[in-house]
Amino acid sequence: MATIKDVARRAGVTISTVSYAINGTRPVSEKTRAVIFQAMDDLGYRPHAMARALASKRTRILALLFSPLERGLGLTELEFVTCAADAAKERGYHLVLWSTEIHDEEDIRHLSSQGLVDGAVLMEVQEDDPRIGFLQDLKLPFAMIGRTAAGEGLLSVDIDFGRTLSDAVDHLVGLGHQRIAFLNQSREVYDSGYGPAVRGLAGFEAAIQRAGATGYRVFAHANPAGGADAIGELMNDHPDVTAIVMMNDRAIPGVIQALSERSLTVPEDVSLLSVASSPRVAEMFVPALTSMDVPSEELGRLSVEYLVSTLEDRPAEGGDLVPCTLVVRGSTGSAPQSL
Predict the structure, then answer these.
(1) Which strands sit side by side in the sheet containing 61-66, from one edge to the other?
(2) Are 154 and 306 within 8 A, CB to CB?
(3) What would the pLDDT profile of 46-56 be if each residue is shown by its tens digit?
(4) Using CA atoms, how far apart are residues 47 and 332, in angstroms rounded to an integer?
């Protein structure tokens, strides 16, 4: 069985440096820490978790607070979780998923008061998110994947929805589309102040105005029936639409089915572009969806970096905005000359 001495020898450092990296009692550079934890993995060395916690007065466990809203945990959300977990592991921490309702103060208080975790990463952030006040009162360090309306001074990283929706609209306008719809999350989710739903729509409307195009908006529940209902509403009110920007993964099957039932083909009659979604989602459909692929790896990594920096008394600023990346697949094409 490997010992801490074996780890030190393999990593080319002293035993005390290995101990500092494990316990967090003294600063160790990220490069050295990575070498040490790689040596631990190679040798199968696992320090006793309780002993490590007692030595450092830390659990080295982070909680990812996920409030599922109506969508639950899908492929896109799962990528954020796995990327954040990988980033935590690289820094000597474990990440646990803690699903709790956004207004459940008692659950968050229990998480903190029991000393179960050192800090938290928040997902599914609302414009006015009550969890932030709870965590601040409890003095539990946290960082966010997402941001609030007044997020100054909070550690956060988020999608740059303005840039992302601008790139999406520019792609469609470049193909000749002038009548473009935005299919959002449900009206209830939007009205709750869910950040992506609010910022996505604002970014779309600003991009449409800048491009001199005509934009429509429609809300959909996060399921195929919601997507089908939204397309029925959209096409009844605005049959001249030639492109749809979708920011609702779960509704997409219903969107495609409803278009097919109206004898509208993709992309010959209507172009589809998915925003802030996983490439795995986009590639599940026929044709594969042109999408603004979500930067889940970077967002997960940065959120953990900010939190760990705070826990280890290193300054962090946060506030990064990362745009999604346009990947052209088969679902967008030139606007039809006539409907």
Answers:
(1) 94-99, 61-66, 119-122, 142-145, 156-159, 320-322
(2) no
(3) 765 544 554 44
(4) 52
Read off φ and ψ for residue 327, nearest 5 degrees: -125, 115
Containing structural domain, residue 310: 61-158+298-323
Identify whether 124 is part of a domain. yes
CATH number at residue 31: 1.10.260.40
Give backbone dihedrals phi and psi of 54, rounded to 5 degrees, phi first: -65, -40
Are 52 and 66 found together in one domain? no
CA-based nearest residue to 62, from 26, 24, 97: 97
pLDDT digits (tens, 9 = 90+) for 8-53: 999 999 988 888 887 666 778 888 988 988 898 888 887 655 445 5
Say if residues 251 and 183 touch (Cβ distance below 8 Å). Answer: yes
Is the bond into 287 cis (omega within 30 degrees of 0)?
A: yes
What CA–CA distance (Å, rounded) separates 318 from 334? 40
In the structure encoding, which two tokens stand for residue 284, read together? 């599940």
For 182-227, the DSSP string reads: EEES-HHHHHTTBHHHHHHHHHHHHHHHHHT-EEEEEE--SSHHHH
Q: How far is 149 from 195, CA to CA, in rounded Å?
A: 8
